[in-house]
Amino acid sequence: MPTLPTYDDVCAAATRLRGFAHRTPVLTSRTIDLELGAQLFFKCENLQRMGAFKFRGAFNALSRFDERQRKAGVVTFSSGNHAQAIALSASLLGIPATILMPADAPAAKMAATRGYGGKVVTYDRYTEDREAIGREWSERQGLTLIPPYDHADVISGQGTAARELIEEAGELDALFTPLGGGGLLSGSALSARALSPRCEIYGVEPEAGNDGQQSFRTGDIVHIDTPRTIADGAQTQHLGALTFGIIRREVKDVLTATDDQLVECMRFFAERMKLVVEPTGCLGFAAARVMQDSLKGRRVGVILSGGNVDIVRLCALLAS
Ligand SMILES: *Cc1c(COP(=O)(O)O)cnc(C)c1O
Hints:
This protein is of the alpha/beta class.
């Protein structure tokens, strides 16, 4: 078993991120508190640099490169937000970045990645193995591979969002975060366990891709085919060894949400809170809404993980 990152690593990441990542706002809504009979605190990572929490993990990981690694550059694979996060962090630190992206990734995410200075190489997400391609590039060209979630520095960086949330909102009874490969959930769990020891931590996946739920309940990492869901940030096929190591130790349960529930949440955020939240970013709130009876009277944190959605697609989803 590789060494798992700790809350001390999250604190070190927070120091590296100071002056580079935004300290995003924590918003509340009287409407939703009345609907659920609970007190909700939304951590708005849709307002983070490049539009998602992934800037935190990417910047933390690249900040730790030595001189040789900085010169040679970084390579990664991603369905979108991690790609933009690596491209932006690399350009801020003067490191060349090569990004492997699925050929059918949302247009806005691909354009943004190129706009941040990343070199984009495409692959077919349904037939090719992105991890094998990434390893090949790193071996052939001496590039350092920073994967989207199963990396100690990525996990520690992602944990800084929940750290800020609890610093600002105070101790929580429950915390809900979206779950893809588990970088956000495991990092959040390190912070929540340290700052709010009794907090129940929940990860939420798209119903069509519940590998994390199966893994959590069986105790072994379950692999699935790329799920078809509008939550493109959580179309991962399996958890990582590091993320699962933390998740199985700290998390209360893994829940799921349907695409219809995600659209309903996107509508709520747009209409009532004037927030653009991408489908994946709505997972945590979708599950909290369904659980409402057991949350009555409690203090609940929800991480809105990102806001990168083509505006035309947003309108089409809301009109459907
Ligand atoms: C990547 C991503 C997730 C999932 O994060 P993991 O660390 O892979 O679990 C959730 N929401 C958004 C917006 C993302 O970009």
